[in-house]
Amino acid sequence: MANNKGRYFLKRENIYKEEIEFFNFKTMDFEDKRNEGVMLSTIDSMTTLFSDGDELERYLSKDTRKEHMYKYIIVYRNNKNEEERELNPVWDDMKLNAISKISDGKINYDNNIMIELAEEIFDEIKKPNSLLARKIVKAKKNDLKLDDYNKKLVGALASSKRSPFIGDLTEAFSSYKEFRALYLNYKENQNKKDDWKEILRKLR
After folding, report:
1. Which of 149, 151, 153 is nearest to 1 (CA)?
2. Distance set, CA 53 to CA 93, 141, 195 (Å)
3. Which among 172, 115, 165 has a CA at the least distance from the CA of 148?
4. Is the pTM higher than 0.85?
5. 104 pLDDT exceeds 50?
6. In 3D, which of 93, 119, 112 has the Cα closest to residue 173?
7. Which of 74, 97, 126, 149 could lock 48 by a disulfide, CB 3.0 to 4.6 Å apart?
8. What pLDDT score was predicted for residue 135?
9. In 62-175, where does DSSP find H-type helix?
10. pLDDT score at 138
């Protein structure tokens, strides 16, 4: 699987006027022109540190009073047909921040934290009452969508009674973008479970 190294750009659009800028990781600021692309993990390692785009803007401008009205999008080129696609930035996520910092387009599984998270996700997929596998297979949003091979793998994992060899799964999810999508599905699924638990707690 290709890792799309250097193909990703963090784009900022002004919602009040036609103004588009791209983040330059060398100057650490937004500029009118599109500069060299970076890895997706590089963008995630920055955005996940901030609660939202406004906090990022306040950090960059050093002006806490300034109001910012921008839309942020990650754009990249698809390897097959060079069609430009979009992803949403991930904000305020220290777990993904940690993953991004030990990844260079490929996931580094030589790390106990990484292995533990992968096993946690795969165990959730295999749980009989879990809706995670269905969510992953049916995902349409580009942020959550896996490639066809990995979608089939998740479906097979959920329906099998056998415990898979973790090495086979980590090899399939060696692409940072693929593991990112897998993780975001898992995170969304866990958040919904927590919401239901809170609703049930209040009903008691």
Report:
1. 149
2. 14, 21, 25
3. 172
4. yes
5. yes
6. 119
7. 97
8. 95
9. 94-101, 112-126, 132-138, 148-159, 166-172
10. 94
Lowest mean pLDDT among 85-99, 123-137, 152-166: 152-166
User: In Å, how far from its chain's centre is CA 141?
Assistant: 12
**Interval 122-132: pLDDT, tens:** 999 999 888 99
Centre a 10 Å sphere on the Cβ of residue 90 and count the other Cβ atoms it contains.
19
Integer Cα distance of 171 and 83 in angstroms: 27
User: What residues does 10 pair with on adjacent strands?
Assistant: 74
Tell me which residue of 28, 10, 8 sits closest to 20, measured CA to CA.
10
Q: Give me the helix-helix angle, 112-126 and 94-101, nearest 10°.
A: 120
As a whole number, mean pLDDT of residues 95-112 equals 90
Q: Burial, 78: exposed, middle or buried (Cβ in 10 Å; 0-12, 13-18, 19+)? A: exposed
Tokens coding 98: 């940690």
Mean pLDDT score across all residues of the chain? 86
DSSP-derived 3-state class of residue 146:
coil
User: Helix (H, G, I), strand (E, B), or coil: what is residue 35?
Assistant: coil
Rounded CA separation 150/182 (Å): 10
Residue 62's pLDDT band (cuts 50, 70, 90):
low
Residue 200 has a pLDDT of 43
User: Which pairing describes strands 8-14 and 29-31: parallel, antiparallel, or unpaired?
Assistant: unpaired
